[in-house]
Design a protein that fits this description.
This protein is an alpha/beta fold. The protein contains 16 helices and 20 strands. The protein binds 1-O-alpha-D-glucopyranosyl-D-fructose (TEU) and calcium ion.
Length: about 525
């Protein structure tokens, strides 16, 4: 496939409100991100993805936007952003922003106008429906509420929301609205940003058939509806193709065949995607399923489009807690998972704190959780009569707050994140798990990421090489190869708490990188090795 800068890039995701607070208000800010650009550069990342920082009532941490053109006070000012962008570019980092255009905040001027009068031209920017038999049009749920329909008494109609009640969905059928969105995208691209991460972009088109669904909890009816590819092709044609930018679409509920329709280069829609087969189908680690998903996506996108590799982000529990071992093998496990995401086919994404092996949390009370998804679900289940303790425990492992606790920089109060009271409790393990401590240790996770990133950068086989799973049926050991022309890499991972034999054809290969020092006959728990050979030699 054609080589491009973004296919070779490593992305570092900054959840800025939890990154570094520079004015003591308890929220991380853009100035904090600017100050830490050298840190991100030192790690070796090429692109910084910033979660939304636009004006927002913050019901869903910035994913409910009230003004696409302004920076929210917590984050700072437009000048702060411009300085950040300029300094990032000056040290060779690119910056991509979150594009949230499936919905706005209910406080966006468009929605306020739409609500105020059925005759307003903005009314049709949103999706309205008359009651059916005096009730909501159907039994569809939303991500964050028991129904995707919210009644608006004044106009006696329901509006549609895929997420919270405070996040009404935009009506992409309206051509004027689409032009408004394209104009806004050009505004940011003209400032010099390098692309977009597109929030739930495959939800833009809505299902026409409004009949009840058999299982309202399977939200797939919200996504991938007819018309979606027309919108994305139009967006590409009118906006994206005119810039040297990259796009990554957040695309839940797709198989590889459906995913290919979004990123197939000949279709001129998106560059890359995040699919959620791992996140949605594997609450905890499942090696055989994981291997199958990797094989399927490799085959499905091969020669057509580009994938991403991530095991956590601001919505998903930290990988070492959810998929690895965050106790006695934390350091090895964090490195093994990194080895996976940086050597499998696709762009690797690092979520802030992952590079030091940060872990999830289990707070004692629902009051300590801020995540609207979790709080709403908790309220719904408790109202249905379930035991409150039990509900809390059941929601803890996958709470989005697991990954949203503040960044742990050092051993100072609040981990050096803030001099004020952090907007959300910090993980108490910051006393020994923080950037400063990690860097001072011989087995630093950060330094391992550095080596891994450098290795990938210097070896096109790890980026463009063919992928083959050499051990599809082993439930503990993952072995695969990446080959390009005369170069061959074999990656060997013991994803388990036990010792295993090296199962493999690594005879005569050179051990280039590993996450621990061991005797070579056996693989220690969570050991990761990268072997190399070249026919050139
Ligand atoms: O997330 C959408 C979302 O919840 C899913 O993509 C989910 O992660 C996936 O189906 C796997 O279960 C995005 C943002 O990342 C999130 O923070 C926002 O709350 C949400 O959209 C609404 O904008
Ligand atoms: Ca701040």
């Amino acid at each position: 496939m054609k080589r491009t800068w973004w296919k070779e890039a490593v992305v570092y995701q900054v959840y800025w409100r939890s990154f570094l607070d520079t004015n003591g208000d308890g929220y991380g800010d853009l100035e904090g991100v600017r100050q830490k650009l050298p840190y991100i550069k030192e790690l070796g990342a090429d692109v910084v993805w910033l979660n939304p920082f636009y004006v927002s009532p913050d019901k869903d941490n910035g994913y409910d936007i009230a003004d696409y053109y302004r920076v929210m006070d917590k984050a700072g000012t437009m000048e702060d952003f411009e300085r950040l962008l300029q300094e990032a570019h000056a040290i060779g980092l690119k910056v991509i922003l979150d594009l949230v255009v499936n919905h706005t905040s209910d406080q966006h001027a468009w929605f306020l106008e739409a609500k105020a009068s059925v005759d307003s031209p903005k009314r049709d920017y949103y999706i309205w429906h008359d009651p059916v038999d005096g009730k909501a049009p159907n039994n569809w749920r939303s991500y964050f509420a028991p129904s995707c329909w919210e009644y608006h008494a004044e106009s006696e109609q329901y509006y549609y929301h895929s997420f919270a009640v405070e996040q009404p969905d935009l009506n992409w059928e309206n051509g004027t609205l689409r032009q408004e969105i394209y104009r806004m995208m050009r505004f940011w691209l003209d400032k010099g940003i390098d692309g977009f991460r597109m929030d739930v972009i495959n939800l833009l088109a809505k299902r026409e058939d409004l009949s009840d669904v058999a299982d309202p909890y399977d939200l797939s009816y919200l996504a991938n509806n007819p018309g979606i590819h027309d919108y994305l092709q139009e967006m590409h044609d009118q906006v994206l193709q005119h810039y040297d930018c990259m796009t990554v679409g957040e695309i839940p509920f797709v198989t590889p065949a459906e995913g290919a329709l979004y990123v197939d280069e000949s279709r001129r829609e998106l560059d890359t995607l995040f699919h959620f087969q791992i996140a949605d189908e594997m609450p905890t680690w499942d090696m055989l399923r994981f291997k199958e998903i990797q094989r399927d996506w490799y085959e499905g996108l091969k020669g057509k489009g580009w994938n991403s590799q991530f095991l956590n982000n601001h919505d998903h529990t930290r990988q070492v807690t959810r998929y690895g071992n965050d106790r006695e093998h934390r350091i090895a496990s964090a490195k093994l998972l990194a080895t996976l995401t940086h050597t499998l086919p696709g762009m690797p994404y690092i979520y802030q704190g992952e590079e030091i092996g940060m872990t999830g949390v289990a707070f004692d009370s629902i009051d300590e959780y801020q995540d609207i998804a979790m709080r709403n679900r908790y309220a719904e289940e408790v109202a249905n009569g379930r035991d409150a303790r039990e509900v809390l425990t059941s929601l803890q492992l996958l709470s989005r707050d697991n990954s949203r606790t503040p960044m742990q920089w050092n051993t100072l109060k609040h981990g050096g994140f803030s001099k004020g009271k952090p907007w959300m409790s910090i993980n108490p393990n910051y006393t020994y798990l923080n950037v400063e401590t990690d860097l001072s240790q011989e087995d630093s996770v950060f330094r391992y990421y550095q080596r891994l990133i450098r290795l990938r950068r210097e070896n096109p086989a790890l980026i463009y090489g063919e992928f083959m799973d050499l051990l599809p049926n082993d439930p503990f050991i993952h072995v695969y190869e990446r080959t390009l022309e005369l170069e061959r890499f074999v990656i060997v991972l013991n994803h388990s708490n036990h010792t295993h034999d090296v199962p493999l054809p690594v005879e005569g290969m050179e051990l280039l990188l590993s996450n621990m020092v061991t005797e070579h006959e056996k693989l220690a728990p969570h050991e990761a090795r990268i072997y190399y050979s070249s026919l050139r030699h």
